[in-house]
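Summary of Year 1 activities. Much of the first year was spent building the evaluation harness for sequence design. The harness presents a backbone, in tokenized form, and records the residue chosen at every position. We chose the following record to illustrate the format because it has been used consistently in internal testing since the harness was completed.
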């Protein structure tokens, strides 16, 4: 889809602007037109290295981007899974545009590695695949990852498939990787090392004690697999009946158990100035899977950019600056791991 849109825009510009300019150039400087034509052909070749890719599901299409290095066979491919919330294939959402996952795919391309990244169901171009909230489960997203792996495995250009998950995408990736023999390695990027119910309690630890006395037992009820009736209006957004089945399905997963089950090479990456996921989480994952490689990236935040401070307010401009490059050590460690598999 993206390739067709780009081509369409180019044709519109040529009809309106470029043809008169080419006529003038051809009249005075014949050779410049040849150079221009060559340049445009080169641009077309570059664009051809990016392909739309679609996963068909029973509730709608999940759309993604396949980014290829120089066209050849037997190239490794990494499936990149975005984090929680309305985060798209590029690592962006409505409140933060940083292009972190887009830049990761581009770095892989420079190093001869293909990648697939996608908009999760309900997000961006995959919005129509969401279905009803009451029917959504964490396993729905896990199954989507598994289906992406199966789809990629059918492409004979790829020699091996690796999975990389960022933030919540880490848990999704490790669960799917543990179930699919096509996956040859797994990379956790800023992945939580504790179950979601524990993290949720930590995030709500600053609310007044009277509120905690209500919220924590509700979380415990969901953890046990039971739904909650008569949710207070003030807590309806968090515990509304239609979202409770999803939370129950999410709380049952412990990242430490899931990563322990992996028998493939594992890389655990964590930034030292990440204010959303702690170094402790990376250490917990490493303790559960001591055969993994663990790398704490100095002065890297949650969106994989350079950041010397752990002050949340001072980090906000970095979250919303799409022009900032990725941390260089992060991309180096990531690509080296993929290449040696």
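For this record, the design step produced the sequence shown next.
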């Amino acid at each position: 889809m993206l390739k067709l849109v780009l081509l369409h825009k180019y044709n519109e510009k040529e009809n309106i602007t470029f043809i008169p300019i080419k006529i003038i150039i051809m009249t005075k400087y014949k050779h410049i037109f040849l150079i221009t034509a060559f340049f445009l052909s080169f641009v077309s070749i570059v664009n051809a290295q990016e392909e739309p890719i679609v996963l068909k599901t029973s509730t709608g299409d999940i759309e993604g981007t396949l980014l290829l290095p120089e066209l050849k066979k037997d190239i490794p491919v990494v499936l990149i899974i975005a984090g929680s919330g309305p985060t798209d294939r590029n690592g962006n959402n409505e409140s933060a545009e940083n292009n972190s996952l887009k830049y990761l795919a581009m770095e892989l391309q420079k190093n001869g590695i293909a990648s697939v990244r996608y908009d999760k169901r309900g997000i961006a171009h995959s919005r129509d695949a969401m279905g009803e909230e009451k029917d959504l489960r964490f396993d729905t997203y896990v199954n989507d990852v598994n289906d992406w792996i199966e789809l990629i495995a059918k492409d004979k250009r790829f020699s091996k498939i690796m999975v990389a998950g960022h933030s919540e995408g880490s848990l999704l990736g490790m669960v799917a990787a543990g179930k699919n023999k096509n996956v040859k390695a797994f990379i956790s990027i800023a992945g939580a090392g504790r179950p979601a119910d524990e993290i949720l309690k930590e995030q709500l630890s600053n609310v007044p004690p009277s509120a905690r006395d209500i919220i924590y037992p509700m979380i415990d009820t969901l953890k046990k697999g039971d739904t909650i009736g008569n949710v207070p209006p003030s807590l309806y957004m968090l515990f509304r009946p239609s979202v409770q089945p999803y939370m129950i399905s999410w709380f049952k997963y412990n990242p430490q158990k899931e990563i322990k089950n992996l028998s493939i090479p594992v890389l655990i990456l964590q930034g030292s100035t990440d204010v959303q996921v702690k170094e402790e989480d990376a250490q917990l994952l490493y303790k559960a899977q001591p055969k993994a490689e663990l790398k704490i990236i100095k002065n890297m935040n949650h969106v994989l950019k350079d950041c010397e401070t752990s002050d949340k307010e001072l980090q906000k401009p970095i979250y919303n600056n799409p022009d900032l490059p990725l941390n260089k050590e992060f991309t180096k460690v990531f690509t080296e791991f993929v290449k040696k598999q």
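The radius of gyration is 23 Å. Quantitative recovery figures across the full test set are reported in Table 2.
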